[in-house]
């Protein structure tokens, strides 16, 4: 792949949508980034954790207080991956240093494009994104929503960046929070199912190692089959569920638990929290 004529700034302390996952995924993808990648962190310890990544210049703000502004001044793409409450201050810090053609991309849950416009001005090209942690293995789902000043070219550049770590869905901003309740939080749902299935296997007498292997590989194998077959999940489920068989009995128990209602309430709770974050709560 040819080198991109972009720079990439990622300030990556731990947050809900870990900027470090995106950074590691982009590096692992092997895509060439013209001018390299600059990542800033508050502490030397966190900066050192990224310093060994090829093509990454990792800056500790405790040693270089102007690191954010310095990196932003050279960056075509600025990824803002701090905790939501920290976003306005960071934006005001880098605003005077941004290039005229800079694209500022939010990774922060619940922070609206209006917040970016308020801190940076309406002329700045901003895009709101909602990735998930499988970016580290190139299997992310990232939603992106363009701000009013963002051009089609801006969206194409950001889309191409996130496509190095997985799939991309373009949505209006009004749908970004809803997307986050499915793909953003979704890996945690999957891990919870694996966790509980593993516990069930242990309860039936399997060793911890065998129980974990069965649960993990069942999920991995099922999703691989889904991807390879092109069939609907409901159809594959029906093929596994023989009439009057063991799977049918188990599925009946799960359906009695009203999983449809559980997932509806879970995603609604996540969406309510996203709105609270947007309101500063």
Automatic annotation (TrEMBL):
Residues 19-110 form the Pyrroline-5-carboxylate reductase catalytic N-terminal domain. InterPro entries: 6-PGluconate_DH-like_C_sf (IPR008927), NAD(P)-bd_dom_sf (IPR036291), P5C_Rdtase_cat_N (IPR028939), P5CR-like_CS (IPR053790), P5CR_dimer (IPR029036), Pyrroline-COOH_reductase (IPR000304). Its EC number is 1.5.1.2. Pathway: Amino-acid biosynthesis; L-proline biosynthesis; L-proline from L-glutamate 5-semialdehyde: step 1/1. Residues 173-277 form the Pyrroline-5-carboxylate reductase dimerisation domain. Keywords: Amino-acid biosynthesis, Cytoplasm, NADP, Oxidoreductase, Proline biosynthesis. It is found in: Cytoplasm. It catalyses: L-proline + NADP(+) = (S)-1-pyrroline-5-carboxylate + NADPH + 2 H(+); L-proline + NAD(+) = (S)-1-pyrroline-5-carboxylate + NADH + 2 H(+). Catalyzes the reduction of 1-pyrroline-5-carboxylate (PCA) to L-proline. Belongs to the pyrroline-5-carboxylate reductase family. This is Pyrroline-5-carboxylate reductase.
């Amino acid at each position: 792949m040819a080198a991109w004529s972009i720079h990439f700034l990622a300030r990556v302390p731990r947050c809900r949508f870990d900027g470090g996952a995106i950074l590691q995924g982009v590096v692992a993808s092997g895509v060439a980034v013209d001018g390299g990648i600059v990542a800033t962190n508050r502490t030397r310890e966190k900066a050192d954790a990224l310093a060994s990544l090829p093509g990454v210049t990792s800056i500790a703000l405790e040693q270089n207080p102007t690191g954010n502004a310095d990196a932003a001044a050279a960056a075509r793409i600025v990824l803002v991956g701090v905790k939501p409450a920290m976003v306005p201050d960071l934006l005001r810090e880098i605003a005077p240093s941004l290039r005229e053609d800079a694209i500022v991309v939010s990774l922060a849950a619940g922070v609206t494009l209006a917040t970016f416009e308020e801190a940076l001005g309406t002329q700045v090209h901003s895009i709101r994104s909602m990735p998930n942690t499988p970016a580290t293995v190139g299997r992310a789902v990232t939603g992106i929503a363009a701000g009013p000043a963002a051009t089609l070219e801006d969206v194409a550049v950001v889309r191409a960046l996130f496509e190095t770590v997985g799939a991309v869905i373009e949505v209006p901003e009004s749908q970004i929070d809803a997307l986050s309740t499915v793909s953003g939080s979704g890996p945690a749902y999957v891990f919870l199912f694996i966790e509980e299935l593993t516990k069930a296997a242990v309860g039936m007498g399997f060793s911890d190692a065998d129980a974990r292997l069965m649960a993990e590989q069942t999920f991995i194998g099922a999703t691989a089959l889904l991807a390879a077959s092109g069939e609907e999940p409901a159809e594959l489920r029906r093929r596994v569920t023989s009439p009057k068989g063991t799977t049918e009995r188990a599925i009946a128990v799960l359906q009695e638990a009203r999983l449809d209602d559980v997932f509806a309430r879970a995603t609604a709770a996540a969406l309510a929290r996203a709105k609270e974050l947007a309101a500063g709560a």
